[in-house]
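Sample entry (146 residues):
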Amino acid sequence: MYKKNITGLLVLLFVFFIDRITKDHVLNHINDFYSFLGGVLKIHYVENTGIAFGMLGGFNKFFIIFNSFLLLFLFYFRRKLNSLLQVVAIHMIIGGAVGNIFDRIKYGFVIDFIDLKYFPAVFNMGDFFITMGAIILFLSSGEEKC
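Predicted structure, serialized as tokens:
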């Protein structure tokens, strides 16, 4: 139990730190867009007041409340996880969600900046960790206990 809690806290802090550092850099240093890999990857600043794909923009207070309840659920759910890999995955999700809620509270929107040519939305590192955590959690559902 102790190992799971310490590992989870370290993962959460790491994800939040990476999310904050990248968003702060984009917020303070990106005035235009930058293109990499022949235009497959672009970095540019976007203010997202909605949810995924920018849908339902303008409901920031609702999303702060709704996402806070989701966080509470995730913290409850993490207690039921069996493996260290699952603990890492759920804390990747929690860390990314905390980063996005932080943006909503501080700025009134979520800072997005990663634009992949063949992906329909601009996203951030918090979103990346949320997605990777969800995939890992799904794929590790048959893992052994810690």
